[in-house]
Amino acid sequence: GYAIYFDHARRNDPQFRKKLRKEKKRVDRSNASLKATAASEKQLPTDAELDAALQVVRSEDLPATPEEKEQYFMQNLALGEQLTAQDERIGLTLPAALSFFRAMRVYPEPLQLVVILEKTLPEDLFKIVMDLMSRD
User: Fold this and answer.
1) What span, in angstroms and rounded, lies between the C-alpha atoms of 17 and 91?
2) Which family is this protein grouped under (predicted)?
3) Containing domain of residue 31, as a range?
4) 52 and 90 both lie in a single domain
5) Which H, E and C letters describe 26-79, residue by residue?
6) Which CATH number goes with the domain that contains 125?
7) Do 75 and 111 sit in the same domain of this protein?
8) What pLDDT, in 10s, does the model give residues 41-93?
9) C-beta separation of 118 from 126 below 8 A
10) 32 and 58, same structural domain?
11) Global pTM value
């Protein structure tokens, strides 16, 4: 009964339609403001945090053989992808960027990898990876 009443009101009553449009606009505005606040709350790492993370990565030993390098590359690339997927929920931007940076350090043609990462990674994460590369 309610479905028939509301369908009839939606089709025939101009005030009811206007009220629905107004409510939809209000909900859309509130969703937009929530997205804007969520984006502003997402903090990028500071210079000190990046420098400290870079020191940790520099202190790690790089693999010697090509097989070890390939395994290291694939392991860090997979870890970076996992952390990127989880980043939306718990904020793992720096660890994901470090994983991609570690993978880039052992890749034979880093510029090719940069082009691929630029197309696939979120903008803020790619910016952090590039910042780490420029500091290294």
Assistant:
1) 41
2) Belongs to the Tom20 family.
3) 1-39
4) yes
5) HHHHHHHHHHHHHHHHCCCCCHHHHHHHHHHHHHCCCCCCHHHHHHHHHHHHHH
6) 1.20.960
7) yes
8) 556 667 777 778 778 777 887 888 888 888 888 888 888 888 877 766 555 67
9) yes
10) no
11) 0.62
